[in-house]
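We emphasize that the prediction below concerns an isolated chain of 192 residues; any contacts that depend on oligomerization or on bound cofactors are therefore not represented. The input was used exactly as deposited, without trimming of termini.
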Amino acid sequence: EDYKKSFHYLYAIMDKGEMSQDDIDAAEDYLKRIKGVTVLEVDASRFNLATDLYATIKADAETRDGIVDGIQIFGTPDTAPSFRIQYSADMVDFDGNHSIDRMGSYFTDLFYGNLKNDPADIGNSYSVYDHFANNWEVTLRPEWPVVRLPLNSGQFSAFFKKYDDFQINNRYANLPIVNFSNPIFKISDSSD
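Result of the prediction step, given as a token string:
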């Protein structure tokens, strides 16, 4: 039992077919420098839906001893699937009449933060409003960090060069990557 608690791993999700060779080399170099965990790469090219990717990771984790320490995603939702959440609100007019306003959807990686959910319950029709209104049994609390680096082909190697230069110039031994995993608007350009 102590062994199970001492073995830590994280999933690194990427579609190498959507990355340049320099990007792949930079990402793999970054992953090799992560200490204290075993990094398990997952090929995102096999998945069109986040629920399918989630189900695969969940099934894999169930076969392993140890503890998931995090999920690192490389790429945009077009290359490594994100969940789409329906945004709804209970609107009340001046007369006290209620109506549900379905305002659209946004991408999130929130569900990758635990593996306790049935993939069918967190698909593209998931709504936070419906969750609470209908008392759905969906776990929203993350158990580990989920980080997405939402870059396109040719951008990863430049990002990691800046990342490495910053670490060296500021004498940081280990610097976590900033998480931009839950944009409300589609990211078309990154300052990194």
